[in-house]
């Protein structure tokens, strides 16, 4: 007769935009204070973001914490904090490098980083870049977010024509990610498991968007109220939690749910529960 060993949460891993703060920020002061308190309790934590690792480090500096890790560029890059006594020291690893198909795609669209333009059906289209090494991200240059719908169609045609092993993701702020096949936030989960000697079911993830789906494989899931329906279905099906509140407040609500289920180590579980209740009062 086999028995199931219930594992306690060892790591908190969270998407950023739409999950712990509104899309594009800012992070609520009460959420910033919540993270500072969690850090003092010794919970291992860090973001899993489509943005680069420097963005993740900067976010931590802004709210007065030091992340234990940052899984950036949708899993393509991973940095681990190896020194907190002074200015934080990070060791970077490449989870997966940029593919030759991505390099070929960049050439096909005449991508010009310094000129901030690319070729769209014979015309130069302007974009706002974000510096990354493993994936390519293009933002609309101004307030017209719908301009990238035409980009998306154009990019799909190029990928289909040349058989590039790339996937496209477009987000609510209009930006488009061009991501080599094989790169996903699941790579970040794997790096966390290797680094902290844990299993996926000891990682609690906070999610809202389509690029978070792979983050939920084998992990415990908080899907905030503004999450896409697929993530809510995953959370419901695999003993996760779907919050009633959106982004940051939903994140804290989800943490409270798992603390009430005694899913954290006994030395900190009740402290996390009290912290969640106090923080939610500030977010009303």
Give an account of the 3D structure.
With 284 residues, the protein is an alpha/beta fold. It has two domains: 11-96 and 185-282, HAD superfamily/HAD-like (Rossmann fold, 3-Layer(aba) Sandwich); 100-180. It is built from eight helices and 14 strands. The protein has helices at residues 29-40, 53-63, 100-108, 147-162, 186-196, 229-237, 247-260, 269-282, and strands at residues 11-14, 44-47, 69-72, 77-83, 89-94, 117-120, 123-126, 128-129, 136-139, 166-170, 176-180, 203-207, 220-223, 241-242. It has a five-stranded parallel beta sheet with strand order 2-1-12-13-14, with helices on both faces. It has a four-stranded antiparallel beta sheet with strand order 8-9-11-10, covered by helices on one side. A three-stranded antiparallel beta sheet has the order 3-4-5, sandwiched between helices. Strand 6 and strand 7 form a beta hairpin. Helix 1 (29-40) packs antiparallel against helix 8 (269-282) and helix 7 (247-260) runs antiparallel to helix 8. The model has no long low-confidence stretch (mean pLDDT 94).
């Amino acid at each position: 007769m086999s028995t199931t060993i219930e594992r306690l949460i060892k790591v908190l891993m969270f998407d950023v935009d739409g999950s712990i703060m509104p899309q594009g920020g800012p992070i609520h002061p009460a959420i910033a204070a919540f993270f500072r308190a969690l850090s003092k309790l010794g919970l291992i934590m860090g973001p899993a973001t489509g943005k680069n690792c420097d963005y993740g480090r900067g976010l931590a500096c802004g709210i007065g914490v030091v992340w234990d890790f940052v899984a950036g560029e949708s899993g393509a890059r991973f940095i681990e904090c190896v020194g907190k006594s002074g200015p934080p020291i990070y060791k970077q690893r490449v989870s997966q490098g940029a593919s030759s198909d991505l390099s070929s795609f960049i050439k096909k669209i005449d991508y010009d980083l310094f000129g901030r333009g690319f070729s769209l059906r014979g015309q130069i289209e302007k974009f706002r870049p974000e510096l990354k090494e493993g994936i390519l991200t293009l933002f609309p240059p101004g307030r017209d977010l719908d301009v990238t719908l035409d980009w998306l169609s154009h990019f799909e045609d190029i990928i289909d024509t040349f058989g590039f092993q790339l996937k496209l993701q477009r987000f609510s702020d209009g930006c488009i990610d061009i991501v080599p096949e094989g790169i996903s936030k699941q790579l970040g989960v794997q790096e966390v498991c290797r680094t902290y000697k844990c299993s996926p079911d000891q990682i609690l993830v906070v999610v809202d968007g389509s690029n978070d789906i792979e983050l939920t494989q084998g992990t415990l899931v908080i899907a905030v109220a503004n999450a896409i329906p697929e993530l809510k279905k995953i959370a419901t099906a695999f003993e996760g939690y779907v919050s009633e509140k959106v982004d940051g407040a939903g994140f804290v609500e989800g943490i409270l749910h798992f603390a009430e289920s005694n899913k954290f180590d006994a030395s900190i579980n009740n402290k996390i529960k009290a912290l969640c209740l106090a923080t939610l009062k500030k977010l009303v």
